[in-house]
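Contributing: when you submit paired examples, paste them exactly as shown. First protein:
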Amino acid sequence: MMIVVRSLLFNAAFYVSIIIQMIVFTPIYFLMPRKKAWMVPKNWALSNLWLQKLIVGTDYSIEGLENIPEGAYICAPKHQSFWDVFAFLPRLDDPVMILKRELMWIPLFGWYVAKMRMIPVDRGTRTKALRSITQGAKEAIAQGRQILIYPEGTRRPPGAPPQYKYGIAHIYAELGLPVVPIAHNAGLYWPRRKFRRYPGTIRCRVLPPIEAGLDKETFFKRLIEVTEAACDELLLEAARDENPPPMPPTAIQRLKELGFEPPRPSK
């Protein structure tokens, strides 16, 4: 019952915080130079992390921060939850996100995104979308920015079989940049399409960069292998906690494949 109450309180605080911060910081945000204006969304991200710890009891840890290079690179986090959309922003210098063009049409939010010169993509035509992404990314890296892209394109539940899109291999080859994979298990604590939030510690791991210059197939295979191996390790660590979060069916199945008998799913 307390999980439900805390989840409701956190969700309410999350949206109230967005509204208040937009009212307070919007004038500042649009008057500041673009790069300095990052302080507003980064502050929003940090406030979300603080609220989640205060209300729900969910903390987080990030290993491997020394693997983050300076300047331009491709940042490739695992995508399990809305949590990973904002949680890494404070750790990135000047990221540029690749997002659906339709998001640009949302009042105020779209204006925020436009200010940061993100890369909107029309997903209707794959070839046209890749061309648009590549062009926008080249302009961004010329300014030393980091390209933030989710290789699977959409949120996947913890333990689910990977479904990486080959587009990242194309972007990697075109840009000639190293790729920094990020593994985590946030989907156990902030599940997709659910309102419940669970206490515990979200574990994240920044992996060593995959060097530029590999052929597409070699790069694509390595990205999947290193990211999924790290995600498996983090899933096992969560399952071995004294009070593990509820495991979705995909996580239970994956744990069994890894030789671990997980706790029964909560009713």
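Second protein:
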Amino acid sequence: MFDFIEGEVLLVDKPLKWTSFDVVKKIRNQHKAIKVGHAGTLDPLATGLLIICTGKKTKQIEHYQGLTKEYTGRILLGKTTPTLDLEMPFDSEHDISHLTKEDILEVVKSFTGRQLQVPPVFSAIKIDGKRLYKKARKGKEIDIEIKPREIEIHAFEITDMSLPEISFRVVCSKGTYIRSLARDVGEKLGVGACLSALRRTKIGDFSVENAWQITDLIEKIKENKQIANTQQK
């Protein structure tokens, strides 16, 4: 039985095109009187592990946010978009025929370790109390300097190279934007790049392999509510 007031830590496999808040809202609609929050945003075009905390366990959100993350995905070389992924149309294209696999592997290797990273304009970062993406989506010019943040890439490996796309696995610190990593790889190669797929596979010791599909979780919550109501009668 779930105890949402005392608190639950739920692992959810976020579906494609859902926002992280969509998942929170879906669960909150089942128990409107309790707190529900997530421990780390996933972009709408990303899938994978989302940690949801309820009730008293929402006090642990900051702890889970600070854990190391693991992602798998694909980077499309030679094309860029304003959002750094495929949410918006391409705004530039460059020839990549001169690139060798050795060039790409060398550049990827150079991103391992501590470094400064500039977050995307389309991100949930707050500047002057407002989310950047809200201003960007309205087509307004971002006239505020987005300061780089220190991150750490613990591992960055290429798992497949079928140009113009490269598949990868990344293990990184809190605050790392994989869209920014894709952008930076493209810039260092001199051809531009964007993220074409992303899946979060681990947060600390938690794995997406143990996560609920959202439809199954909601059905389980409904079953628990029915059992609880029957016991109260």
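If you have annotations for the second protein, write them as plain sentences, like these:
The chain has a mean pLDDT of 90.
The longest strand covers residues 149-162.
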